[in-house]
Every structure is written in structure tokens, then in C-alpha cells.
Amino acid sequence: MQLHTLAFFVAPFITLASTVIPAHSSDAQQGRDGEVRILYWQAPSILNPYLSGGIKDVEAASLVLEPLARLNPDGVMTPWLATEIPTLDNGGVSADLTRITWHLTPGLTWSDGSPLTARDVQFTFQYCTATDGACAQKDKFRDLISVETPDDLTAVLQFSAPRPYPYGPFVGPQTPILQAAQFADCIGPRAPGCTEQNFAPIGTGPYTVQEFRPNDAVRFTANPNYRDEGKPAFGSVMFKGGTDANAAGRAVLETGEFDYAWNLQLAPEVLDAMAARGKGSIITAFSTLVERITFNMTNPDPALGEDRATLGEPHPALSDLAVRQALAMALDRDVMTQIGYGPTGRTTCNIIPAPPIYASSANDGCAAQDLEGARALLSSAGWVDSDGDGVRQRDGTHLRFTFQTSTNAVRQNFQLLAKEWWRQIGVATELRNIDASVFFGSDPSSPDTMQKFYADIEMYAGASDGPDPASYLGQWACGRAPSPDNAWQGSNVARFCDPEYDTLLDKLTQTAGLAERAEIARQMNDMLVQNYVVVPLVDRGRVSARSNSLAGVQINAWDSELWNIAEWRRVTP
Fold it and tell me: Exposed (0-12), middle (13-18) or buried (19+): which is 155, by Cβ within 10 Å?
């Protein structure tokens, strides 16, 4: 694709009707700065974050759908649709830690002019926890048993057990409030079929969906009923998806065709050369985003039919801890970080690298490559090259793996490095790269999604939604594995299952003291890392680019990067 074609659409949009209501008058008129153009090279496939865990989908939807609270760039929880953050001190959290009370800000409306009420909060809980539903954010609602609405502006969340950190539901872009009236007929198994609702949700955010072409682009227009007069400054947003990170970076930093480019996972020297053109700036923020390799604990052999990659079928080689450990020992994580990210990445041995109180020191030294040690470990475990073809085997099982990831220059470089290092210890690797919109997509019929994991090894990045890692660590609980029963929407991609881990997770959800919670979280991190369920590689900063004519941007690695788009405005560079 030539770069100039990014500005156009190759097929008609899906257009959805909307109600137009006159905007509020203001000295600083809404929409005064025209259009802002955003390029996410992973195109959104849906605008309902409850049906997709993909960052591209969640962040595109965040222009429309909003939570009760979110995290600012420093990781501090900030009221959004609520008047304040409920705590023990202000009485918003009950003394027994089983109840949290949120108060909605009076006067808020949906983009169609109807009032936002606590009933919408209650409905959103019912939507995600419905029987036979395929809610991708169900982990956030762990132990939540009811939402009561004593009045229109009060939502009382009741948990079945003490929740020392009760801010999973409705905090952050993954769990925004849905309009009950719009989604009333989309409960449980009917949810994925509600195309109009999922493609054009009614929200309280600064924008509404005007047109949507899945896996291509979205056109947003300013919400005429947005609560802040004169905002947003941009009357429309062209949110384009597709192409690749290199083209996205050039579109902002070299040609100026776009105003904002997301997730520029490019070699440092490439970014530096682009920025030297003077049309835009690189912006970076760190939180807990970790590039990692995940091993499949189950067997992806297609001969297994419906049992393929499910918990009942353990992997014939990767079920052996020695194999997973040897593969990890063969990697040189410092080299990968330097080549792939430069100053925008930091080598990490932890799946939870921040905040500092949660970062374990038990895995220090993991970054040192040890090829000889890896070879000795495999030999001692009975994996030997008995026929001289360079590939180790044991009991008829050969160490031949398929290693998949999304199509991305940095990830393909990492694949090539890993393949060579693994060859040196007697492991053969077939590499696959999959279009990012497919790999991170939510189509349960696709064989190529990250969740379905029809391969032996895969690589991707993930992060905790906030400074408390309980919900994130809950992704590796036994019951969270993707399967046909949950439309392959589970979060436990590795299919790891250890009752001891689940016990620690339960303990974490019942412990209130910060120091005690941090100790448990470090133990869980160590269990995942030392069992080589995942191999953390790089603590990645979020790297994006903005035009020099775009002001008000505050890149946020704890929330949606577009969290404050209502504050964006055009300036003269």
C-alpha cells in the first residue's frame, strides 16, 4: 500500500443513524479545529470492549464509551462519570470490604440526550455476567454478585467476598458503562449478534460513531450533548486502521498526513530518522506493558478436532518444565531489547514490572543467555538428538515447534533471533506471522487468533489495567482458559492451571494491606515466571507519535492513549 492511500477508503462505510441535537453555545465553540486524523495500524474490528480484549478495539471505543473512573498518566485513579473515588475513609467502601458505592455526577446524559442513571451501571454488570455470555472482561467482575440502585445517581456494588481493591468493574476503558436501553436485547448468547449496538454504541464520551468499516476505519463526530461546553475542539475524528507501524510512523513524522500514530514498535534508529524530518514528535510512557513469549500447555495438533488446544490434551513436549526452561535460557533478552526498542524498552524478568513495590527481585539474572546450560538441561531430561538431524527427541516426540505472532518488524526480528538460538540447542522452529487485526481479533471462527493459540509458542504484549495487579494476575486462573465453551474469549492463553496459584489469587482478593498484597502478587509473578508459563522479554514503553500541530496530548500507559482526546486542539507549530 502506498502511503497516500491511507487517506481514502476502498469500500463504503457501514453507516448507522444517529440523532443530531444542537450543540451548546460557547465562546470556544465545539468542533472549531475541524478534523483530527488518528492512525492505529491494528484496525478495530468492533467498538464494544466487552466483546474484545484487543487494545485497538478498547481504545477506539474509548472515544464513545466511558467508565466511572480512570487512571491518569501517573497511574492515579481519577473520577470520570462519578463524583469521587469511593474509599474506606470517605465511606464509599464498607468496613467489611464487600461493598462499594459509586455516586454519578448529576446532569450527565448519553449522546442521544437521555439521562445517564445508575440503572445503566446495573445493566452493564448484568450484561457482562450473563449466563452463556462471551464477555471478554468477565475477570474484572470477579465476585461481584449484584448492583443495587437506591436512586438514579447511586450504584452499590455488592461482592460475595471482601474486595480490598474493589476497583475492577467500571474503572478504565475495558469496563465502561453501556446504555441499558440500547443493549437491552443483547444479553448472553445474543450479544455478538447485535451488530448495530456493537458497531455504534451510544455513549457519554466526547464523540459519537458516524460511520464504521470493521477492520478498516471509523469516522467519529463530536457528541452534541457532551458535558463540557466547547469540547471537543475537533468536530470529527478519522480513525484509520491497517497498514503497519513503519507506514504509521511516516504518516505523522515524515508526510504529516496524520496527526497521531499509535504503537510505533520500530527499531530506535528508524524512529530517530523519522523524527528528524521535523513534522512530529515521539512520545513515550511506561507502565506494565511487557512483551512476552507464551508456551502452549495444551496440544494444538489439528488431529484432535474439537479437543485441540484444550485443557484435556496436554502438550507432548511443552508440558515438560525442562523444555520450557531451556527455551528461555537460550534467549538473550538484553540483545532483543537493544535491537527492538533501544531507550523505549527495558529488559525485564517479571510479568509485573511496576509499580516498584510489586516488582519481584527473585528473578534477577534471568536476562543472561546460557546456551550451554540449556543444552545440558535438555540432555539431563532425556531430550537427545539420536539420529543426528539436529533436532532433539524423546519417546518419539521431536522438539519441533510452531512460533507465531502478529505481523510487525520488531516481532519478526525477535522470531528470527529466537529461531537461531533455539537451533543451537537442538530445537527446530517454524515461524508464522499473522495480520495484527486477525491475531488480536475476536472472531471465534478464526483459527489464527491469539486466544485460540493453534500453535506451540506465541509472542505478544500485555499489561495490567492499573497499579493493582490482582485482575491482571487473575488471567492465569484455571477457569480462565479460552475454549469452545466461552467462544475462545478466555484470558489464560497459556492454558496454565495450578490450584496453588488459584489459592494465592483468592488470598490476594481478600488481603487489604498494600505491603501484604504486594508480597502475594510477587509470589504469583514468580510462580508464572519460574514455571516458564510466560517468558517476559521487554518492559515496553508505549511509543506513539503526534504532529507538532497537535496540542493537549498526554500519552497514558495506564489507560487508553486517547483518554483525554476532549482536550486535544490544533496549534501553529
Answer: buried
| Per-residue CA distances from 195 to 56, 112, 178, 446, 488 (Å) | 18, 19, 15, 18, 19
In angstroms, how far apart are the furthest CA atoms of the chain?
80
C-alpha closest to that of 90 among 77, 101, 74 = 101
Q: What is the pLDDT along the chain (573 residues), one digit of tens a residue?
A: 333 333 322 222 333 333 333 334 345 899 999 999 999 998 999 999 999 878 999 999 999 999 999 999 888 889 999 999 999 889 999 999 999 999 999 999 999 999 999 999 999 999 999 998 889 999 899 899 999 999 999 999 999 988 888 998 999 999 999 999 999 999 999 999 999 999 999 999 999 999 999 999 999 999 999 999 999 999 999 999 988 999 999 999 999 999 999 999 788 889 999 999 999 999 988 899 999 999 999 999 999 998 999 999 999 999 999 999 999 999 999 999 999 888 789 999 999 998 888 999 999 988 899 999 999 999 999 999 999 999 999 999 999 999 999 999 899 999 999 999 999 999 999 999 999 999 998 888 999 999 999 999 999 999 887 788 988 999 999 999 999 988 898 899 999 999 999 999 999 988 877 788 899 999 999 999 999 999 999 999 889 999 999 999 999 988 999 999 999 999 998
CATH topology of domain 290-465+534-540: Dipeptide-binding Protein; domain 3 (3.10.105)
- Joined together, the cell numbers standing for residue 35 give 478534523
CATH T-level fold of 1-64+205-283+543-573: D-Maltodextrin-Binding Protein; domain 2 (3.40.190)
